[in-house]
Design brief:
Number of domains: 3
Number of helices: 18
CATH architecture of the largest domain: 4-Layer Sandwich
Structural class: alpha/beta
Strand order of the largest sheet: 3-2-4-1-10-9-11-15
CATH superfamily of the largest domain: Aminohydrolase, N-terminal nucleophile (Ntn) domain
CATH topology of the largest domain: Glutamine Phosphoribosylpyrophosphate, subunit 1, domain 1
Bound molecules: 5-amino-5-deoxy-1-O-phosphono-D-mannitol
CATH class of the largest domain: Alpha Beta
Strand content: 15-25%
Shape: globular
Helix content: 25-40%
Distance between the termini: 11 Å
Oligomer: single chain
Number of strands: 25
Amino acid sequence: MCGIVGYIGDGNARKIILDGLKRLEYRGYDSSGVAIVKNGRIVVEKTVGRIANLEEKIISLPFDGNVGIGHTRWATHGAPSDANAHPHMNGDGSIAVVHNGIIENYVELQEWLREKHGVVFKSETDSEVIAHLIGVFYKDKGSLLEAVYQAVSMMRGAYAVCAVAAAEPDKIVAVRKDTPLIAGIGEDCNFLASDIPALLKYVKKIYLIENNETVMVEKNRITIFDEGRKRVRRDVFNVTWNADAAEKDGYDHFMHKEIHEQPKGIFETLRRRLDENGLICLDGISLTKEDLFGINKIYLVACGTAYHAGLVGKYAIEKFAGIPVETDIASEFRYRDPFVDDRTLFICVSQSGETLDTMAALREAKRKGARILSVVNVVGSSIARESDDVFYTWAGPEIAVASTKAYTTQLVCMYLLALYMGYTKGVLPEGEYRRIIEELRETPEKLEKFLENEGSILKLAKKLYKKEQAFFIGRGPDCGVSYEGSLKLKEISYINSFAIAAGELKHGTIALIEEGSLVVALATQDRLFKKMLSNIQEVKARGAYVIGIAKESNHEIEQHADYVIYIPETADEVTPLLAVAPLQLLAYHIAKLRGCDIDKPKNLAKSVTVE
Ligand code: M6R
């Protein structure tokens, strides 16, 4: 989704901003641009396509200065084009802005600006109105800060906006509502950005800007104001990631690197939640035994891959903790008036902690009295900050758009929460509790070994990469993993793929199976193994080519599937942690063979901060 970088200091703003924008490329974008303030003027260059195009465009131009703002745009209002790219300027070029989010009342604002101020718009975007509004009020107030306040008072929607004025080259003014914004604290320089990775090379100390706050960034000062325009004291947030964690480390793609980082992510997520006696400790999470007895329903709410982690989480929590769980898609939950009260535990799952629909669902649940626990990867993200408690996944920065290590660490959190709840409530016997913990502890090593045999999956990919359709089927927790495997394949290889509960096949979807159809059948559950064999036979009988995923001991599958990928032996409950790996690798190699842009699939963004 869109990215923002702002810089003010003694350095070359163009270079620093371009560098920051490149570090946000992974979020997905279709155009980019930079505005530099110098000698009482603002120079703007922007272009459709990759940042490399922008760099090429401005390299020979007199484009140096020490203050500027930059943007990567992911089109919402208006197609990707030079005109629609940010920054946008007001009519006389005295103001430039970049904007992430959506201005819901932009049509009204356009009319007002046209009628009252004769504004002529140059783009089809909602964002351009912001530049004109600030421009109108700047004429009146002569202060960028005041003009931003006035403009914001007329805007409805979600936004992180950074603005510069030609006549005030000593500051950048930014404002945030429901869209992330941070200010980076440098030495003799300061920064603004939508995301931490943009600034990692330059600063480790940042201020997290809260909703409805305005921030004025000068070379040696950052001043934050609340909604009532009072100055706010904010603690410095120390970033613990280093810039290397956001590098490819010899892999061709971040996705590939991140698949291989899963054993480490699982290990780290477990290590931080297991005490010296091997018991689960939820230090820093305020859920007491009494609270647990008071909970009569759990909602697991998320989007995309995080939602798929919730599908598996439902099985784990219902089984170990005996509490009814409903897993829901955030964009559905937020508009369907769900049954939530003060006995509901609302667990939202999000890698970025910034997904707008998930955030809105969280607020809806909170409004109805639920207790909010979030499972989040990005420390200090908006969802983390608005939750009562946060259970962090320790995946490290996930850069590829296709989520992999965030998913497996989210699963670990689901298991730990489920086990903790069950054991604390006394519904899960200690032996069972310890047995599953032991299985979890063994997972990183098993997964590491499995990933060493990637060659066989590459061979399989070579056989399959020209297919244009795929089906993923499974039962129980495998059903959730099927959804994730299918999403991985479709989002990076553009193969038309979909997942379905295996038992549902014969209620309609089997009509699509024909000679050569590719079916990936997950059969890792001992209890459901025979049922899966029947489903495999059903599709085989109609000519499908079946890849079976099973535990090493379940050889019987070889009699039915065309190709079998064995995962290491483990308890049924935790097989998703291992079973997803072959699906991720298969998707990766197929996409690579098809020549796809794996880390930045078309039309997708890493963090979806619009509806
Ligand atoms: O940051 P989040 O986990 O809230 O993101 C939710 C989805 O957009 C995300 O999981 C998406 O489905 C994956 N990147 C797909 O691989």
